[in-house]
């Protein structure tokens, strides 16, 4: 169910922004552009990252991926981003910060830090995304903008057919290299390092 909606002018074009709620009280936000009913429409399931998106952290690529996805959607003429309030792969902000401190002190990666705190590698629940996509009238056949195999699996479990999965070209700080390598090696992400420019 759509709770509220408005139009938002951004640096990457005009988006319709809505909040959604499912039958269990879970909420998410969507950003959509153009007609979403055509087969192959672009979609991204994006988890919130206050450090990478608002505080300009250099050790992740969440901000660059979000902004590049917005650019890609406006270039294509249609698409949607479902923005999920799932900090730290679903661990929540407090545990994410504890994990970050464990990484800093022990010199381990985020998967290892989470394990030491008794957390799973990825605790995200994508079910509310199904509500948002249905509210938006998303086509059953989609193009997924992501390098995460779990997001493809989530869309398929929600009843969508992923016609193709694309990796974007974007710039990110050189400090994010180890993080992206970890996602590729340990998380089976299809990170295309040929499309990523490391700067700074």
TrEMBL record:
Boundaries of every GTP cyclohydrolase II domain copy: 5-166
Annotated pathway: Cofactor biosynthesis; riboflavin biosynthesis
Any Pfam family: GTP_cyclohydro2
Protein keywords: Riboflavin biosynthesis
PANTHER family: 3,4-DIHYDROXY-2-BUTANONE 4-PHOSPHATE SYNTHASE, GTP CYCLOHYDROLASE II-RELATED
Protein name: GTP cyclohydrolase II domain-containing protein
Organism per entry: Streptomyces lomondensis
């Amino acid at each position: 169910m759509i709770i509220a909606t408005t139009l938002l002018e951004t640096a990457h074009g005009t988006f319709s922004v809505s909040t959604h709620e499912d039958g269990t009280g879970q909420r998410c936000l969507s950003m959509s552009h153009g007609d979403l009913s055509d087969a192959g429409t672009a979609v991204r399931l994006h988890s919130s990252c206050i450090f990478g998106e608002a505080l300009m952290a250099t050790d992740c690529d969440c901000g660059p991926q979000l902004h590049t996805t917005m650019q890609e959607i406006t270039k294509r003429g249609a698409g949607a981003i479902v923005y999920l309030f799932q900090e730290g792969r679903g661990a929540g902000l407090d545990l994410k910060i504890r994990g970050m401190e464990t990484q800093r002190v022990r010199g381990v990666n985020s998967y290892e830090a989470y394990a030491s705190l008794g957390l799973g590698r990825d605790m995200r629940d994508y079910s509310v995304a199904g509500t948002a996509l249905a509210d938006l009238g998303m086509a059953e056949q989609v193009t997924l903008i992501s390098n995460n195999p779990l997001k493809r699996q989530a869309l398929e479990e929600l009843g969508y057919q992923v016609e193709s999965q694309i990796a974007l070209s974007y710039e990110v700080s050189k400090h994010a290299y180890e993080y992206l390598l970890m996602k590729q090696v340990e998380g089976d992400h299809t990170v295309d390092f040929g499309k990523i420019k490391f700067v700074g």
